[in-house]
Amino acid sequence: MFFNKTKKIEAQIDEYLDLVVKGGLVFKLGLRSYIENREAEFEGHLTDLRNIEERADELRRNIEIKLYTRTLIPESRGDVLGLLESCDKVLNITTETLLEFSVEIPKILPELYSGFIQLGDMAVNCIENTVRGIRSYFKNIDAVRDYIIKVQFYKKETNKIAEGIKRTVFRTDNRLSEKIHIRYFSFHIERIAEESEDVCDRLSIATIKRFE
Amino acid sequence: MSLSVWFFICSGLFLGWSLGANHAVNVFGTAVTSRMLKFKTAALIGGIFAVLGAILSGGGTTETLNNLGGINAIAGSFTVALAVGISITWMTKAKLPVSTSQAVIGAIIGWNLFTGTPTDLSSLFKIFISWVISPVIAGIFAFLIFVLIKKTILKQRIHLLLLDNYTRTGLIVVGALASYSLGANNIANVMGMFVSASGFEDILTPYFTISGTQQLFFLGGVSIAAGMMTYGEKVMVTVGKDLYKISPITGFTIVLAEFLVLTMFTSKELESVLISLNLPTIPLVPLSTTQAFIGAVIGVGLAKDPASINFRVFRKITLGWVLAPLIAGIISFVSLFFVQNVFEQKVINPVPYRISDSVLDKLKSDGVPTQSILDMKGIEFDNKKTFRNELLERYDFNNSQLFILFKYAIVDSFYIDTLKLSNDIKAELTAAQFEKIKSLQNRSFSYKHEFEKSLFHRDSIWNDTRNRFSEKETKGRKNKLEQIFRINTF
Question: In chain B, which residue's Cα lies nearest the Cα of A207?
Answer without folding.
Answer: B160
